[in-house]
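If you are new to this repository, start here. Below is one unmodified record pulled from the training split, so you can see the exact layout before writing a loader.
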Amino acid sequence: MNLAERTFDGCRIYAAARDIPGSSGFHGAVVVMAGWSGARARTEVFRDECLEDGRVWLDAQGALAFALEVGQAAILAQRI
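And here is the target side for that same chain:
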């Protein structure tokens, strides 16, 4: 499993590229936590453990990049 993190607009985005057993491909996953900075409690605001309905990426970097983009889009979509 390959992991990446990014802070965006006060939230923390956690991305993963998970190996597919018996394959050379990867699935992407993302979790977004709000309240990353300051004394507030952290709260999960978005999760998708099987991006694009199980799309297979040929390399981990592609899956990670997409997962980080999805996390950032989720943060932007939840703005009021």
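Two things worth knowing about this chain: The two ends are 34 Å apart (CA to CA). Residues 20 and 38 are 37 Å apart (CA to CA).
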